[in-house]
Amino acid sequence: MGAVQNQTIVFCKPYKVLTSFTDPEGRPALGDYIDVPDVYAAGRLDYDSEGLLLLTSDGKLAHRITHPKYKLNKVYLVQIENIPNNTALNQLRRGVMVKGKPTRPARVERLPAEPDVFPRSKPIRYRKNIPTAWLKISLREGRKRQVRRMTAAVGHPTLRLIRIAIGPVKLGNLTPGQWRNLTEIEMKTLQDSLRFIR
């Protein structure tokens, strides 16, 4: 008998889909999109957030992806209310208080234009008198609803949040509801990035 081959997939989670496979309340869940046995989400992505979710049948890999000590970088595109000034951006970079505890320093970049992203299934509510801006935020921690709480703390509520990378694995051109297997090269670079605790 050969060793059981683990499977790891990259999924583009649509807006308002749970990161569990079923939901007793009947809300859309992973099982509506993914028909692969024995894979489970490595980490979470909020119900109202979109983008990259890794699922794997490898329990050790899932643990390393989600454990804070491995500090795996996660990258988000974030649409916020109003235009942030340098003070707000620098606060996000240094860390802000979220639930009584400071966030770790983050890489935060204001994008010069709206990024080329897939449309959301339900567009954000457009308000003529409130402009919006897009940020690219890179974090090495994953507290609950962290990005939303960070932008709210500096006076810029998040309107839309899309995760585009986890470590070396990128969402690429997947659109909501699509998934693919991790390539061998992606798996090797992901394992390499998790091998060394920085």
What's the topology here?
Elements: E1 8-13, E2 40-41, E3 50-56, H1 59-66, E4 74-81, H2 86-94, E5 97-98, E6 101-102, E7 107-110, E8 132-139, H3 146-153, E9 158-166, E10 169-170, E11 179-181, H4 184-195
Parallel strand pairs: 3-9
Antiparallel strand pairs: 1-3, 1-11, 2-3, 4-8, 4-9, 5-6, 7-8, 9-10
CATH H-level homologous superfamily name of the largest domain:
Alpha-L RNA-binding motif
Percent of sequence in beta strands: 25-35%
User: What is CATH's topology name of the largest domain?
Assistant: Alpha-Beta Plaits
What is the mean predicted local confidence, pLDDT?
92
Major sheet: size, sense and barrel closure?
9 strands, mixed
Count of spatially separate domains: 2
How would you sum up the global shape?
globular
- How many helices? The count is 4
Computed CA radius of gyration, to the nearest angstrom: 17 Å
Report on this structure.
The protein has 198 residues and is of the alpha+beta class. The protein folds into two domains: 8-68 and 167-195, Pseudouridine synthase I, catalytic domain, N-terminal subdomain (Alpha-Beta Plaits, 2-Layer Sandwich); 73-165, Alpha-L RNA-binding motif (Alpha-Beta Plaits, 2-Layer Sandwich), CATH 3.30.70. 19% of the residues lie in helices and 27% in strands. The chain is built from four helices and eleven strands. The chain has helices spanning 59-66, 86-94, 146-153, 184-195, and strands at 8-13, 40-41, 50-56, 74-81, 97-98, 101-102, 107-110, 132-139, 158-166, 169-170, 179-181. The strands form two sheets. Strands 1, 2, 3, 4, 7, 8, 9, 10 and 11 form a nine-stranded mixed sheet that branches. Strands 5-6 form a two-stranded antiparallel sheet. The longest helix has 12 residues, at 184-195. The radius of gyration is 17 Å and the shape is globular. The model has no long low-confidence stretch (mean pLDDT 92).
